[in-house]
Amino acid sequence: MAFLEELQMEGVASHFARIPMFPFFDLTHYMLSLMYLRHEEGICNVSRKSPITCWICSMLSCFGGAMLAAFMLGEPVIKPFESNINIVLATIVWYMVFYFPKDLFFKFCSLLPAKLIIVAGKEIARVRKIAVGVAHAHHVYHHGYIVMVAVGLAKGAGSGLIATIEQLLRGVWKPETNELLDMPFATKATLLGAVLFTMQKTGYVPISKELLILIITTLLVTIKVTLTIMHSHGSPLAPVESALCRVLFGSLPESSSHDEHKTGHGSGARAPEPGKQTRDDNEASLRKRKTKKAE
Amino acid sequence: MAFLEELQMEGVASHFARIPMFPFFDLTHYMLSLMYLRHEEGICNVSRKSPITCWICSMLSCFGGAMLAAFMLGEPVIKPFESNINIVLATIVWYMVFYFPKDLFFKFCSLLPAKLIIVAGKEIARVRKIAVGVAHAHHVYHHGYIVMVAVGLAKGAGSGLIATIEQLLRGVWKPETNELLDMPFATKATLLGAVLFTMQKTGYVPISKELLILIITTLLVTIKVTLTIMHSHGSPLAPVESALCRVLFGSLPESSSHDEHKTGHGSGARAPEPGKQTRDDNEASLRKRKTKKAE
Amino acid sequence: MAFLEELQMEGVASHFARIPMFPFFDLTHYMLSLMYLRHEEGICNVSRKSPITCWICSMLSCFGGAMLAAFMLGEPVIKPFESNINIVLATIVWYMVFYFPKDLFFKFCSLLPAKLIIVAGKEIARVRKIAVGVAHAHHVYHHGYIVMVAVGLAKGAGSGLIATIEQLLRGVWKPETNELLDMPFATKATLLGAVLFTMQKTGYVPISKELLILIITTLLVTIKVTLTIMHSHGSPLAPVESALCRVLFGSLPESSSHDEHKTGHGSGARAPEPGKQTRDDNEASLRKRKTKKAE
Predict the structure, then answer these.
(1) Global pTM?
(2) Nearest-Cα residue of chain A relative to residue C87
(3) In this structure, are C202 and C252 located in the same domain?
């Protein structure tokens, strides 16, 4: 019975893995990427003043993952731009998001039902990309575990990782934060997924790639859709991380526990180092500036 | 009669296309690039304190386009440095521009007649480089239109595009501006040229490559020489751009037209976004600092 | 007699060149790189808050040279991560340096006798890496002298050169300084070594590569160990540089010699250019801010 069930699952998984990404899932990926970009400070100004810069930043948001993966593997970073049909699709989405009359397209996509579909589609595309990235890296470096994880991570969450460069192109510079320092849930999940696919590829996870894709996709879509409905930016991984950090990197200075109680962050213990003060100072000055602007 | 004329033009074009770039046109390219670098704030200080840094920045100015194109196509970024004779030529120009007794070389090149020859030579070299870049990209990606345009643009105007990195190497950081955000005329013309060469390569422009080189070169040299004589930094493309922007990205917020009237820029309408204020604030503080220094 | 002596030297050199880098010399390289990183401002905070970022920065410190060389030559920048055994070794060192109970490991390594061994080992590894880098570049570009020097320099001192990127990953941004602008002795020695190896490779230095490795290693280890014992950050090359700069780039404005006398730096003449003031202004404002914070 269990055997039959598994067979059926395998069948579903293999069917699922054969669904092509283009056009629907690619479309949702472009839409969500550009909707995030649209929320960025100052981008609307750039979209009026310099549409070319806006378009280039948009393409970096859409194809950044593929470009980062290509850079890591010494392939042409411009390779993702070879596929004209994808470029055209992304360009149409870019035009609709930034220049649609009365901004109706962006407003429509921001409605919860539409957004849920887009988020779900994007996560399905993400998992497939991680799998493709790991497989590609495995093809080049058969035993490079770190390489596989890194390329999978880049493919799945690359746009976020190169956001600093994308911001720089449009004249915004925020060196004090990046997605490595302050990983959002999606990036953490991508990292975890890349580790799992790498383990599958090297034989440490005894299930088929198709089944793994199905499982991770189901999990990720469920979680992201739930988070979107709840308007939450929290991470379901936080308790696990916190415990893991305590065990692995736990020998904290005594004062750190005080600090943790005081701040009540709980997402990993902090040590009050001299460097922290600088950061805090910066944050304080940033906050001040923002307050000023708001006035 | 028209047929014979065309034949003659083709003959001239094919002769023109066979003129080698080395040494004269390469020389003018190095001279103009380094003269622009010499005008940069703080570079003279760097040239005294750290000649090696100055030399590296100079090489980035001279070979930046080739390096950027190589980076895009996944080739060794250091490939342009393989050609010893070009490096020696650029190094001699670097030495003359920065360390010539009493700065006579720089002063001589800055005289109008000398500068006109250098500007003309540089534009001739630029058009040839765009054509080479597009052809190279076409060789790698037969149908990658965007790739061809991008590589052509990089080859023709790459030094400007990577100026942010070149500045960073000598300790100057200006994230709020770059040549993408605020394209000078030369970069725009390069982009247009890259588009035309790409169209020629893919059969949409029914004239020979040689003739296209001749036409674009004639236009570009004429315009740049005129602009140099008039000491103008304006762009003859501005009205076309303005109209095009209005048609393509025209659905501006109502307030934008007011804004435009007020500022009177005319080079594309601006929307007063919250992000803009930040930029303006920065610019204001920059201006203040400059004024202070001048005192 | 001299012939016999030389034979013996060649034998020693060839034996020395055959000592494998792994594990001891690689280990000392990782240890010193991470000890330097550990001294950086704010890194301890990052190591608590985001161990992954800390690990990535550590790997950049350990393998930055190989990555930079790979980038220059158009090879996969992630190639150094293919070697699992090296990654494991570096990761163990990383864990010990940042998370050892009561920080005993770091304190032990910072003791003078331990540090001297680590410094000596690191310099031995460095010279070998320069030789490997030059040989690799020579293999790709037979006559690219600059390429050979650049790749040798990158291999030997790359971690320092990409420190700006490594800092950026952990949210620290110091554009006003980098190792090119303000070369420490080790980087200068690496550059000199790369030039020598390039000359040997192209036949201008008539001794064997093994002997050259032995000579440069002996010199470098002696100097660095001496500098470490003396707690000095000075450079034994300063007088040579100063003289060389005076001859090559000597046409300084008259005031420069005054300036030099006044500041008494002696490490290369400085010209009081308008650009310098900016830097000085920045430094002054930085110092002010620091003072403020200290209060």
Answers:
(1) 0.85
(2) A146
(3) no
